[in-house]
């Protein structure tokens, strides 16, 4: 590729050329879901955004030269609460497993329908407890953590440049802290690495007693294990910058003695619904599942590729307003795009160039649409279109329809044309409607040479 990949880095507040630590193994970590409830449309955004980046990196560095890790947080007090509520009769461990397995399955089904590739590794927090204990041990040994009040806490004052990512100096955080300072904390900003568990809470044996990890330490442990002490890109939603990512950085850097945890930090913007902040109390809290499979949003179901394209029609760093109008717009665009096979073609330069400019999916979608229009007069461009659409993960699927069925439809279409010629519109409409009910859409047009009516058909999305 003749142009360079530029990414905006929250750490430096600048857009700069991306230079991987190792071109043979480009490493990216994105914070994954806490599995206790259906994923909502706000959760879908980072999954889609970083899927596009994953696809782009694979294109640039080669499919087998990118490692993408996205974790599953399967230990959390919200999970415990849900397990106790939903499975009061079960022993706690079984109840927790019931909640996390069901939620994880649903999450995978949801994001697959949104056209997202599976990450290279998807570690679970509970499979990495040993690694977390190892990091906490190191932090205590080198004076960055202490035991107090049944907890192991990170000492934020022990880190000279704590707060670099969020640009919040420690003093400012303390001055602004409205929460009452827990008496056992040395500094108000100190956060939990490990806490003791009571008998009705899940727990693991540790040097500090039977307990469970804090949230932040999970990501430090899993990224360290799968991507190394310093890796290329760390991603997530804007709401994770503080405290989650700030604290991940503090833990990893202080445990490993490194200057950075990841070189590039990328954050996607917030998601609103119909112009309002999404919240359960506002009643506009929509899950991916509801959008795909129920009629709660705009009175209808929405296909996964429409949701995905709607998401990519705004730059990832901008806030996005998720609305019926936006979904309809995405659907209109998609309906004009041809189904095609990339068959080894390279994506077009304008789409690549747009994506290489800090993932400018807005420009990429525009370029893709222009290309789709060009394919109407130049069929040779179809594979290029398909390869470009695939880079965004919005490749229209060719619906497989068997030949016998296809020729039956052709016969009905021909019959309808005869009826139209004979001005028997009632019968002609009957055929159109019957086909429509079976999901087949007819399109009438004129032959540019003879001027005669021609009808084509397609399987409706
Ligand atoms: Zn994380």
Question: Could you please describe the fold and organization of this structure?
Answer:
Its EC number is 6.1.1.16. One of its GO terms (molecular function) is cysteine-tRNA ligase activity. Zn(2+) binds at residues 31, 219, 244, 248. It catalyses: tRNA(Cys) + L-cysteine + ATP = L-cysteinyl-tRNA(Cys) + AMP + diphosphate. The chain is α/β, with parallel strands linked by helices. Among the domains are: 6-268, HUPs (Rossmann fold); 403-459, no CATH class. It is 43% helix and 15% strand. A 4-stranded parallel β-sheet has the order 4-3-9-10, with helices on both faces. The mean pLDDT is 93. Bound molecules: zinc ion. Zinc ion (ZN) is lined by residues 31, 219, 244, 248. Zinc ion binds next to helix 7.
Please describe the structure with a list of short key phrases separated by commas or semicolons.
four-stranded antiparallel β-sheet, 15 helices, 461 residues, alpha/beta, elongated, binds zinc ion, Rossmann fold, four-stranded parallel β-sheet, single chain
Task: Please state how the strands of the largest beta sheet are arranged side by side.
Answer: 4-3-9-10
Q: Tally the helices: what do you get?
A: 15
* Mean pLDDT score: 93
Structural class: alpha/beta
CATH topology heading of the domain at 6-268: Rossmann fold
Estimate the helix proportion, in percent: 40-55%
**What is the general shape?**
elongated
CATH class of the domain at 6-268: Alpha Beta
Largest sheet: 4 strands, parallel
């Amino acid at each position: 590729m003749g142009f360079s990949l530029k990414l905006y880095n929250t750490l430096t507040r600048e857009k700069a050329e991306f230079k991987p630590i190792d071109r043979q193994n480009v490493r990216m970590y994105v914070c994954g879901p806490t599995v206790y409830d259906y994923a909502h449309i706000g959760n879908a955004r980072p999954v889609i955004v970083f899927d596009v980046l994953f696809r782009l990196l694979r294109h640039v560095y080669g499919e087998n030269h990118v490692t993408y890790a996205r974790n599953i947080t399967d230990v959390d007090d919200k999970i415990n609460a849900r397990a106790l509520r939903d499975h009061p009769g079960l022993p706690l461990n079984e109840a927790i497993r019931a909640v996390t397995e069901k939620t994880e399955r649903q999450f995978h089904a949801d994001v697959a329908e949104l056209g997202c590739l599976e990450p290279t590794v998807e570690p679970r927090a509970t499979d990495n407890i040993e690694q977390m204990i190892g990091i906490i041990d190191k932090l205590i040994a080198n004076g960055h953590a202490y035991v107090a009040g049944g907890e192991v806490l990170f000492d934020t004052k022990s880190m000279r440049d704590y707060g670099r990512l969020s640009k919040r100096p420690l003093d400012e955080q303390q001055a602004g802290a409205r929460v009452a300072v827990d008496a056992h904390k040395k500094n108000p900003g100190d956060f939990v690495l490990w806490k003791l568990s009571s008998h009705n809470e899940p727990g693991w044996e540790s040097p500090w007693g039977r307990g469970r990890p804090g949230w932040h330490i999970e990501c430090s442990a899993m990224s360290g294990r799968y991507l190394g002490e310093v890796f290329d890109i760390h991603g997530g939603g804007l709401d994770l910058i503080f405290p989650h990512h700030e604290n991940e950085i503090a833990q990893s850097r202080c445990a490993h003695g490194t200057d950075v945890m990841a070189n590039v930090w990328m954050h996607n913007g917030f998601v609103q619904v119909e112009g309002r902040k999404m919240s359960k109390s506002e009643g506009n809290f929509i899950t991916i599942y509801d959008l795909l499979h129920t009629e709660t949003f705009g009175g209808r179901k929405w296909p996964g590729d429409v949701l995905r394209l709607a998401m990519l029609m705004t730059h990832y760093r901008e806030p996005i307003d998720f609305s019926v109008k936006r979904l309809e717009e995405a659907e209109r665009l998609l309906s004009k795009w041809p189904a095609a096979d990339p068959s080894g073609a390279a994506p077009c330069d304008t789409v690549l160039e747009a994506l290489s400019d800090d993932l400018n999916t807005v420009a990429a979608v525009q370029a893709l649409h222009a290309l789709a229009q060009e394919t109407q007069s130049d069929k040779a461009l179809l594979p290029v279109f398909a390869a470009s659409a695939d880079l965004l993960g919005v490749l229209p699927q060719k619906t497989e329809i068997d030949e016998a069925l296809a020729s039956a439809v052709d016969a009905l279409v021909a019959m309808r044309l005869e009826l139209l010629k004979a001005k028997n519109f009632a019968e002609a409409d009957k055929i159109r409607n019957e086909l429509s009910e079976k999901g087949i859409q007819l399109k009438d047009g004129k032959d540019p040479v003879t001027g005669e009516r021609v009808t084509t058909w397609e399987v409706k999305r």
